[in-house]
Amino acid sequence: MSDRVKEVVPDLIYAIRSTLKKHGVTFEEYGAAMQYLIRVQETGEAPLFVDAFFNATIVEIDNETRKGTQADIQGPYYLNSEAYQIISERLPHRPIDENAQDMVIRGQITDTDGNPLAGAELDIWHSTPDGLYSGVHDGIDAKYCRGRVITDAQGRYSVKSKLPVPYQIPNQGPTGELLEQHLGRHSWRPAHIHFWVRADGRRDLINQAYFENGEWVGDDCCETDHLDLVVPELIENGARVMEVSFALDPVLVVAAE
């Protein structure tokens, strides 16, 4: 890591210094920026801030070496692996969400040659039907709208849940202020489902699936408009079906220096 720090940090500092000089940033503006960063830290929004402005760029870099399914941003609401209990039929939902629209998430995990990957694991998480995340917002128990699914002998999986909705990222703090007041942007994310896919000998894949015709699809405040991950609308027995399949790359082999 120290070698990478020596490679990256000087260039990062140079880029920031060059930008300051290019725009003739004043002492007053510099001080305001410092106070802003202090507010980001004091409000606990550092993960949100970094996710909103930089995560998509790291994904672009990561995807340059992928031949299978492209990655997408993780988002700040993934919990540690203990929150993802193995689920066979349905992600648990709150009793108050019982009457929300049903959803079926299903698909197949393969390698890049199309061979099914049995025993692959998918951590799946998404918002509640009112746009909140369990274990993060309003004291909601971390078990809701989260679970781990294991593929069968054909690499297939299927699990039921409740339909998530578009939501605003927290916009009353410094991140929302920068987006809305200073950059003239919005703070909405389209409805989506998160995945973290793992299989032996395969490269982990972090991904999101979006809903065809969903509001804010193609205009995500986090600038991650992977329109190839938008799932066509399909309704079966009143449930929205999300057919989401993944082709996993082999583990990257790093050449010895």
Task: Give a topology summary.
Blueprint: H1 2-22, H2 27-42, H3 46-63, E1 102-111, E2 121-126, E3 146-150, E4 156-162, E5 167-168, H4 174-182, E6 188-189, E7 192-198, E8 205-211, E9 230-231, E10 235-236, E11 239-243, E12 246-248
Parallel strand pairs: 1-11, 1-12, 8-9
Antiparallel strand pairs: 1-4, 2-3, 2-7, 5-6, 7-8, 10-11
Structure description:
The structure is a single chain. With 257 residues, this protein is of the alpha/beta class. The chain contains 4 helices and 12 strands. The longest helix has 21 residues. It is globular, with a radius of gyration of 20 Å. The strands form 3 sheets. Strands 1, 4, 10, 11 and 12 form a 5-stranded mixed β-sheet that branches. It has a 5-stranded mixed β-sheet with strand order 3-2-7-8-9, with no helix packed on it. Strands 5-6 form a two-stranded antiparallel sheet.
* General shape: globular
Low-confidence stretches: none
Share of helical residues: 10-25%
Measured by DSSP, the beta-strand proportion falls in 15-25%
**Rg to the nearest angstrom?**
20 Å
How far apart the termini lie comes to 14 Å
Give the helix/strand class.
alpha/beta
In summary, what is this structure?
The chain has 257 residues and is α/β, with parallel strands linked by helices. It has helices spanning 2-22, 27-42, 46-63, 174-182; strands at residues 102-111, 121-126, 146-150, 156-162, 167-168, 188-189, 192-198, 205-211, 230-231, 235-236, 239-243, 246-248.
